[in-house]
Design a protein that fits this description.
The complex is a heterodimer. Chain A is built from four helices and no strands. By secondary structure, chain A is mainly alpha-helical. The radius of gyration of chain A is 18 Å and the shape is elongated. Chain A starts with a helix and ends in a 13-residue tail after the last helix. In chain A, 11% of the residues are buried. By secondary structure, chain B is mostly helical. In chain B, the strands form two sheets. Chain B has a three-stranded antiparallel β-sheet, with no helix packed on it. A two-stranded antiparallel sheet of chain B has the order 1-2. Chain B is elongated and about 115 Å long. Chain B starts with 7 loop residues before the first helix and ends in a 12-residue tail after the last helix. The chains are: A mainly alpha, B mainly alpha. At the A-B interface, helix 2 of A face helix 25 of B.
């Protein structure tokens, strides 16, 4: 067991986790109707990508990947602020957050 | 060598146009007047200075008689060319912005700016109460600008600019009272009829470029001179096209119809543009391009026939008109016909001579008619005038001078110029005799209808309400008196007397460096000794012409001096002919039926319904329909459902992924496959 614990987690596990997170995000984005849930799915995708960035940064001993992560987090934070504001505005205007019913732009 | 900056001559009127055109409505009236008068005066001053600069140093020594006569007018300074850089510069063609001052353009410039200035002065009085005072003067200055450009042009393209420009100014001034429907339509008519002529001019320009590779007048003349083989053929076509242009601008058959209608404009405009200057542009253009006509006897013959037939045709119409301005308009057409007759018998200098004297006496007659109309409060019908000589003595006196001048009585101006043309025609063989006869008969008619106007307007008993008649202000009478003096003396520039010789060829001698020797130059015809050969051919001919004019006067006297029952009886005796003349041979109606109506029909039924609605509209509808149809299908993608968008996005990403990762798909898409492999430590 000690040998097991002392062993490094293989790279592929990180990547697989990253892919799982990303796919969960995609599926959530596609199947959920609530705008907030969709929004959270997007965050999930972003974080899945972040994880792979960090993984590769560690693998290649390159700091660039980690810098990317910071950028992504920063943009995600800004996006969260703007997105939530929009969601609130939409809710006030339409009284619902179900994306199927927010379709007034349709011809 | 610099004579004078020629560009100043058009510049002044153009500045006047800009100032009065832009600021005129906001300026006080005296300032508008000042600008309007200073512009032509300054231009006239520049022309005068240029003329004296050319001729003063040469003194009088040139009049010594010799054989052939050396008139000494070939000043070393002329022709003086002023270029302002190139306009079109391509391998096949080089055209400059260039002005030329030579004997011909000098004469024309003196007329245009001099008579132009007088008419500006007159207009100050005539247009005094008009709302569009500033607008009127800005247009008038614009006209002077383009006219000086036309006259100064060193090549046909610059001339075309002026040519179109004076057409524009003419259009604007004919339609000056644009609230009146008839005036607006007269303006359009003038413009459209002139387009037909301009079409000919343009074709001539294209042919000149194609065959000579240049539009500069002197270069064309040089090329024609080098190769004696240039005869007939394309030169004839070019000359005829030019003549078509001239016929449009100078109101000759068959394009004269716009000029009588142009009388809708203010009377000073009729005097300046539609009598003295613009309508003579055609004559000037033919004289300017005379080398082409010289190489084509056929074209010359056409010019002569058009001129002679227009002269007599318009004169017969003038006989039966009752509107004072229309009489003068047809008279102008007729006199222009004389000028073309002169051009057609290659007596270009005689034509220009008649142009000059005609500018004097016809401007005088129009302005006097304007004074009459002004005094009568807008009345133009001769039948309602009469007995005006007591109340308008100055106008009566100057009109008398004008009538005598246009009828060709010695020693008035018209005598000399008309005589020169008729003599030149007489020398042209048998057909020339016929042309001469037509010209002389026209002289009789001219004299008749002018004296008819004279009797109807000024003599006899008043036939209409003439309440508060008053002579015009001095601003109007002054130009009248000056023009009257010029109408008396204007012809004398053609004579010179030195050492016992009377030489009637002075004017053509002056123009000879530009226009070449006249047909009769070789015989040195008119330098007759003062004492003998008084009954030379020309003397006889001029006596005949004067007798004809006298006859015309007598007829008019017989019919119109006393009660007006006689003309009415005559009209009643020949109702058909009278109606034909009074209705101007129904030419307007004829054109209306043969040209205008079919054109309108064609426009309505073919152009509007087939081309506009069918082809153009159909194409537009087809394009719109295709876009609409495609949109109707494609709009289904835009479901408004966020999740469907996301699904498309994901599907697209999946497809890209497949193409990148699956080797055979990459190969199919022509992409290098990415081989995944995790590099270990």
């Amino acid at each position: 067991m000690s040998s097991f614990l002392s062993q490094e987690v293989p790279l592929s596990w990180y990547l697989i986790l990253s892919a799982i997170l990303f796919s969960l995000g995609v599926v959530g984005f596609l199947v959920k109707r609530n705008l907030i849930t969709i929004f959270m799915s997007i965050e999930l995708m972003l974080n899945g990508v972040n994880l792979s960035f960090v993984t590769f940064a560690h693998q290649w001993h390159a700091v660039k990947g980690q810098i990317f992560v910071f950028f992504v987090m920063m943009v995600a934070a800004a996006e969260a602020a703007v997105g939530l504001a929009i969601i609130i505005a939409v809710f006030r205007a339409r009284g619902t957050l179900a994306v199927d019913r927010i379709d007034r732009m349709k011809l | 060598m610099t004579i004078m900056p020629l560009w100043l001559i058009p510049l002044f009127p153009f500045a006047g146009f800009l100032i009065n055109g832009i600021l005129g409505r906001r300026m006080p009236k005296w300032r508008v007047t000042a600008v309007a008068l200073l512009a032509p005066l300054a231009a006239f001053g520049v022309v005068l200075i240029a003329a004296t600069t050319v001729y003063l140093p040469f003194g009088a020594a040139k009049f010594a008689p010799s054989n052939p006569p050396n008139y000494g007018w070939s000043s070393a300074l002329l022709p003086y060319v002023e270029g302002f850089g190139s306009w079109i510069n391509i391998p096949a063609l080089h055209i400059d912005f260039s002005f030329v001052l030579d004997h011909l353009s000098l004469v024309m410039l003196l007329i245009v700016t001099g008579v132009g200035f007088l008419i500006h002065v007159y207009s100050v009085g005539y247009m005094n109460d008009d709302e569009g005072y500033a607008r009127y003067f800005s247009y008038l200055n614009l006209f002077l600008f383009f006219m000086t450009v036309l006259v100064l042009a060193g090549n046909a393209l610059v001339m075309f600019v002026g040519w179109e420009g004076v057409g524009l100014a003419s259009y604007l001034l004919i339609g000056f009272y644009f609230q009146k429907k008839s005036a607006a339509e007269a303006g359009k008519k003038a413009f459209i009829v002139n387009r037909i002529g301009d079409f000919g001019f343009l074709i001539a320009l294209f042919l000149l470029v194609a065959n000579f590779g240049t539009l500069t007048f002197t270069e064309i003349a040089a090329k024609l001179g080098q190769d004696p083989g240039w005869n007939g053929g394309v030169v004839t076509v070019i000359a005829l096209c030019l003549m078509l242009g001239a016929a449009g601008k100078s109101a000759q058959l068959p394009l004269y119809i716009w000029l009588p209608d142009a009388m809708e404009g203010p009377t000073p405009v009729s005097a300046l543009i539609h009598a003295a200057t613009m309508v003579t542009a055609g004559v000037y253009m033919v004289a300017r391009t005379h080398v082409l006509f010289d190489h084509s006897p056929f074209a010359l013959g056409v010019v002569a026939v058009i001129g002679a037939s227009t002269a007599i045709f318009a004169a017969t119409i003038a006989v039966a008109q009752n509107d004072i301005k229309r009489v003068l308009a047809y008279s102008t057409i007729s006199q222009l016909g004389y000028m073309f007759l002169g051009c057609g018998v290659a007596a270009y200098s005689a034509a220009i001579f008649h142009l000059v004297t005609h500018a004097f006496f016809k401007a005088l007659l129009f302005l006097a008619a304007g004074a009459v109309i002004h005094s009568l409060g807008g009345e133009q019908d001769l039948r309602k005038m009469g007995g005006l000589w007591k109340k308008l003595p100055v106008t009566f006196a100057v009109t008398t001078v004008g009538v005598f001048a246009i009828s060709g009585f010695w020693p008035f101006a018209g005598f000399y110029s008309k005589d020169a043309i008729l003599y030149a025609a007489f020398l042209q063989g048998t057909s020339g005799k016929l042309l001469w006869f037509v010209g002389v008969f026209t002289a009789l008619l001219t004299s008749f209808y002018m004296f008819r106007l004279w009797y109807l307007a000024f003599l006899g008993e008043p036939r209409g309400p003439q309440g508060h008649l008053h002579e015009s202000p001095w601003s109007m009478r002054g130009p009248l008196v000056i023009l009257a003096l010029l109408s008396i003396c204007g012809g004398w520039i053609g004579i010179e007397r030195s050492a016992g010789w009377i030489n009637m060829e002075r004017f053509s001698g002056f123009l000879a460096p530009v226009l070449g020797a006249t047909a009769a130059e070789g015989s040195w015809r008119l330098a007759v000794p003062f004492t003998s050969h008084l009954l030379s051919l020309e003397t006889v001919l001029s006596i005949v012409a004067v007798l004809m004019a006298l006859e015309g006067w007598m007829i008019a006297d017989k019919y119109y001096r006393r009660k007006l029952t006689r003309p009415a009886l005559l009209a009643a005796a020949y109702p058909g002919s009278y109606k034909l003349l009074a209705s101007k041979y129904f030419v307007d109606e004829f054109y209306g039926t043969v040209v205008v109506k079919p054109l309108l029909r064609f426009s309505k039924y073919f152009l509007e319904w087939v081309v506009e609605i069918g082809i153009l509209g159909g194409a537009a509808w087809l394009l719109g329909g295709v876009a609409n149809f495609a949109g109707a299908i494609l709009q289904r993608w835009q479901s408004g459902n966020l999740r469907s968008y996301a699904a498309w996005l994901a599907a697209g990403a999946a497809v890209v992924l497949v193409f990148l990762l699956v080797p055979w798909a990459s190969a199919l898409a022509g992409l290098p496959a990415i081989h995944l492999g995790v590099a270990g430590h």
